[in-house]
UniProtKB/TrEMBL annotation, chain A:
Its main location: nucleus. GO terms for cellular component: Rad51B-Rad51C-Rad51D-XRCC2 complex; Rad51C-XRCC3 complex; replication fork. Residues 32-221 form the RecA family profile domain. GO terms for molecular function: ATP binding; ATP-dependent DNA damage sensor activity; crossover junction DNA endonuclease activity; four-way junction DNA binding. Belongs to the RecA family. RAD51 subfamily. Involved in the homologous recombination repair (HRR) pathway of double-stranded DNA breaks arising during DNA replication or induced by DNA-damaging agents. It comes from the Eukaryota. The lineage of its organism: Eukaryota, Viridiplantae, Streptophyta, Embryophyta, Tracheophyta. This is DNA repair protein RAD51 homolog 3.
Automatic annotation (TrEMBL), chain B:
PANTHER family: DNA REPAIR PROTEIN XRCC3 (PTHR46487). This is RecA family profile 1 domain-containing protein. The lineage of its organism: Eukaryota, Viridiplantae, Streptophyta, Embryophyta, Tracheophyta. It comes from Ensete ventricosum (Abyssinian banana). It comes from the Eukaryota. Residues 15-189 form the RecA family profile domain. Keywords: ATP-binding, Nucleotide-binding.
Length: 253, 283
């Protein structure tokens, strides 16, 4: 079968299964996808080109390792204009811990802009509208910031996103900083916690697929006592560990 | 609109509001002071200057915004005794129109539960301040003292302890958010034994090791508490023999262990009769 006929076959119905795709289509679709750069080549390489859309990526690490910095950086990088090889999207930032600092986002946006001007100036020449968009403040205005103070608000906000994303089709990344904080207090019923968390992750996963956006969940780490010594592990337990497509732990050496 | 849902846009042109430390050098070091709406931890060994700095903050909060303050009253919750009233009195002899002590509310907490119920009642104080000034600075001095005695080193108690950390931190952050307050929590340190990094072999923040009085230390209460604060500052001290070879003097430093808006940095400071002040770095 030639390639064209393979493609053609997907346009028709796939037997009884509506909405089914061949693996071939999925592969070519994935190769077409652009990724959101983390701003660090090595990290991009580990992630297979950057943060992938349609996937849930979990990032963990000790306090002060740079999770929030990475989160803010991604909300800026997702906005790199298409002309410069980016996604030109908008970002949703759900802050559960209060660590998002506008002044820091502004600095990161400035850094990103000066990189773009240095590296892609030749491409920008053809797009006169670009310099106006390449202002730190216009980057900041494309970050939708939600500050939530309890786990009920967290659930409510994520449910509300359903409607919000319907209106804001340009959103290409959702960052939750952190998914954990409000779930580490006061849950006597750990089974309930697990159910609530799985519900939330399913919802986020469905947003990722439906709107082809990236979901990045920042997580805290905790120590686990295994065979006589402490190991560092992502919080929220084993069941949660199935919720994400990619999990990375940041560590200092 | 649901709770928590808000656009960032009105904040665009404003840098986050900061509370001055009452010293221009330290303010420059921290890019304006302590940020509102988040929790700052000041960790250090005893006599490093934690309480001195807190007392100074209580007075700085009363200053008008033009001088880096919040024009606000404050709530000071102490778990270490006694409350240093005489020192506060000595520091407050500045020419302010009203007596600063009228705008500093002091409460004592003896246990974590005590602190939680105090914070719950503090909602009333924050929402309906008894004086004409809003209450926008909350200081807890110290968090570590509350947890030092009641808990054993077994899995059940450790779990209970970390639940309490997150509960306390969530309450403080909620108040920081709702009332635009600055929240400051002081923490003690523990000695680090052996060559491991940090408490459980984990390095937290910018420094592989922290030193104070020639000892290797790290902030108390472990990894789970470290997850609860937005910014961690570390105060250290070192006794040095002065140039005459007889008398000794104490040198002190403030270090940024981690902060969402600050790079790794340190600044030397002194504590004098008038309060805490930074020393301009030599170039």
């Amino acid at each position: 079968m030639s390639e064209t006929s393979r493609f053609r076959s997907t346009e028709g119905s796939h037997g009884a299964l509506k909405g089914a795709q061949t693996a071939w289509d999925m592969l070519s679709e994935e190769q077409m996808q652009k990724h959101i750069t983390t701003g660090c080549e090595e990290l991009d390489a580990i992630l297979g080109g950057g943060i992938h859309c349609k996937e849930v990526t979990e990032v963990g690490g000790v306090p002060g390792i740079g999770k929030t910095q990475l989160g803010i950086q991604l909300t800026v990088n997702v906005q790199i204009p298409v002309e410069c090889g980016g996604l030109g999207g908008k970002a949703v930032y759900i802050d559960t811990e209060g660590s998002f600092m506008v002044e820091r986002a502004h600095q990161i946006a400035e850094g990103c802009i000066s990189d773009l001007l240095d590296n892609t100036a030749h491409r920008l020449k053809d797009f006169p509208a670009c310099p106006e968009r390449l202002q730190p403040n216009s980057f900041l205005s494309n970050i939708f910031y939600f500050r939530i103070c309890s786990y009920t608000e967290q659930i409510a906000t994520i449910n509300y996103l359903e409607k919000f994303l319907e209106e804001q089709k340009d959103v290409k990344i959702i960052v939750v900083d952190s998914i954990t904080f409000h779930f580490r207090q006061d849950f006597d019923d750990l089974a309930l916690r697990t159910r609530v968390l799985s519900g939330m992750s399913l919802k986020l996963m469905s947003f990722a697929k439906k709107y082809s956006l990236a979901v990045v969940l920042l997580n805290q780490v905790t120590t686990k006592f295994v065979e006589g010594s402490f190991h560092l592990t992502l919080a929220l337990g084993d069941t949660w560990s199935h919720a994400c497509t990619n999990r990375i732990i940041l560590q200092s050496v | 609109m649901l709770p928590g849902i808000e656009p960032l846009n009105p904040l665009l042109h404003l840098p986050a509001q900061k509370l001055t430390l009452g010293c221009p050098v330290l303010d420059r070091f921290l890019r304006g002071g302590l940020p509102v709406g988040s929790v700052t931890e000041i960790a250090g060994e005893s006599a490093a200057g934690k309480t001195q700095l807190c007392l100074q903050l209580l007075l700085a909060a009363l200053l008008p915004p033009s001088r880096g303050g919040l024009s606000a009253a404050s709530l000071f919750i102490h778990s270490e005794f006694p409350f240093p009233l005489r020192r506060l009195r000595a520091l407050s002899s500045s020419p302010l129109a009203t007596d600063p002590l009228d705008h500093i509310f002091v409460a004592a907490a003896h246990s974590p539960d005590d602190l939680l119920s105090l914070l719950a009642t503090a909602d009333g104080l924050l929402a309906r301040p008894p004086t004409h000034l809003p209450v926008r600075l909350i200081v807890v001095d110290s968090i570590a003292a509350l947890f030092r005695s009641d808990f054993d080193n077994n899995p059940k108690d450790l779990k209970k302890r970390s639940f309490l950390f997150f509960k306390i931190a969530a309450k403080l952050k909620e108040q920081a958010r709702r009332f635009g307050s600055v929240v400051v929590v002081t923490n003690q340190v523990v000695d680090v034994i052996g060559s491991e990094e940090g408490a459980n072999g984990q390095r937290v923040g910018n420094y592989a090791s922290l030193w104070s009085s020639g000892r290797r230390v790290c902030p108390a209460l472990g990894l789970s508490w470290a997850n609860c604060v937005n910014t961690r500052l570390f105060l250290s001290r070192k006794d040095e023999v002065a140039d005459d070879g007889v008398s000794s003097r104490t040198r002190r430093w403030m270090q940024v262990v981690f902060a969402p808006h600050l790079p790794e940095a340190s600044c030397e400071f002194v504590i004098v009769r008038e309060g805490v002040s930074g020393i301009e770095p030599q170039r």
